[in-house]
């Protein structure tokens, strides 16, 4: 690695700090490296709130300053900087700490401190369903529209989950990000999909919600709609371009595999909608199980009948070496074996 990138950069410098913004500059470091190396270094800037363990990437590029917006007032934030080039990646600078201000105004030549509006004010107003008050708060452009509540919900997530269409529309109008993710990676669209809140879903999709975005477990909005047993939501998501074969991170389950794999699901209408939309009835998970295998394990008898009617294979073998009949026999699932007895001659012929 080049020597330029083994030296720890000086801490970035603060410019203007307000009750909701912090301006940060690294011009001196940038010019020093540019002069010495002859090439533009790329700056990476990270931030974390006081008491928060994880760093958040807030800027990556070739500029020499950045203004972080939509911060909470009277709150402490920590920043660090490093540079990257074709010659390598440098170390992080020492942390630089900034505290946002209270709102300052003058009245009759006296300096007054007025607590600015915060994300809590938005959350409170959304919960109350007060559209006029919400517009009033947002018009002042003081509060962070993306501020999470104590459960990690942004105002838009809360409104979408509760089917508060008017709140969703106002928040979107004021540029709430429909693709913001909470601590587990879930978006407003995912929450609305689980509940089957169709009008909220439509509004979110029209405003740019990424229908293929996944949470930290690999679950998409389509997985959530299947989990919530929301057939109309499934239809809407598929029309919007949802991936029917998207897989979660743990078992490699598609929405159809998940429908069959969850003990408390097994919803025939959900599975039927997924299959009619193009889901693979013989998709394999990480263990080599098909939706039919999952049906057997969870004793979803009616779902088993559905899969057989759509041509599900009883001969595919799991990584443990079981086809569908062998799996049912190994766990003593006589009810599923009876389903096979009733359905297979009709669907497969007597050679099974």
UniProtKB/TrEMBL annotation:
GO cellular component, one term: nucleus
Pfam families per UniProt: Ank (PF00023), Ank_2 (PF12796)
Listed name of the protein: Fibronectin type 3 and ankyrin repeat domains protein 1
InterPro entries in the cross-refs: Ankyrin_rpt, Ankyrin_rpt-contain_sf, FN3_dom, FN3_sf, Ig-like_fold
Originating species: Fasciola hepatica
Residue stretches of each ANK repeat: 151-183, 184-216, 217-249, 287-319
SMART domains according to UniProt: ANK
Fibronectin type-III domain mapped to chain residues: 8-103
GO terms (BP aspect): regulation of apoptotic process
Keyword terms: ANK repeat
SUPFAM superfamilies xref list: Ankyrin repeat, Fibronectin type III
């Amino acid at each position: 690695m080049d020597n330029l990138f083994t030296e720890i950069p000086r801490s970035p410098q603060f410019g203007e700090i307000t009750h909701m913004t912090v301006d940060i500059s690294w011009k001196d470091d940038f010019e020093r490296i540019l002069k010495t190396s002859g090439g533009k270094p790329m700056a990476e800037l990270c931030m974390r709130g006081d008491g928060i363990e994880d760093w958040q990437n807030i800027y990556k590029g070739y500029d020499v300053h950045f203004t972080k917006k939509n911060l909470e007032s009277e709150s402490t934030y920590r920043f660090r900087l490093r540079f990257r080039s074709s010659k390598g990646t440098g170390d992080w600078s020492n942390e630089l700490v900034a505290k946002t201000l209270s709102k300052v105004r003058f009245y009759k030549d006296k300096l007054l401190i007025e607590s600015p509006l915060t994300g809590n004010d938005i959350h409170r107003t959304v919960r109350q369903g007060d559209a006029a008050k919400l517009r009033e708060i947002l018009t002042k452009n003081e509060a962070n529209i993306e501020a999470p509540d104590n459960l990690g919900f942004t105002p838009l997530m809360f409104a979408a989950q509760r089917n508060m269409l008017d709140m969703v529309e106002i928040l979107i109008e004021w540029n709430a990000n429909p693709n913001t993710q909470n601590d587990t990676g879930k978006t407003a669209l995912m929450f609305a999909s689980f509940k089957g809140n169709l009008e909220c879903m439509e509004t979110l999709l029209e405003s740019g919600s990424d229908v293929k975005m996944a949470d930290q477990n690999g679950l998409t909005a389509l997985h959530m709609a299947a989990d919530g047993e929301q057939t109309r939501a499934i239809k809407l998501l598929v029309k919007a371009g949802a991936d029917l074969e998207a897989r979660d991170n743990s078992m490699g389950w598609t929405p159809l595999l998940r429908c069959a794999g969850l003990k408390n699901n097994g919803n025939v209408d959900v599975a039927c909608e997924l299959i009619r939309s193009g889901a693979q009835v013989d998709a394999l998970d990480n263990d080599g199980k098909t939706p039919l295998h999952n049906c057997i394990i969870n004793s979803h008898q009616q779902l088993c009948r559905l899969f057989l009617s759509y041509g599900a294979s009883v001969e595919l073998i799991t990584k443990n070496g079981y086809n569908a009949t062998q799996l049912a026999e190994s766990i003593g699932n006589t009810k599923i074996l009876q389903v096979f007895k009733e359905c297979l001659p009709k669907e497969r012929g007597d050679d099974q």
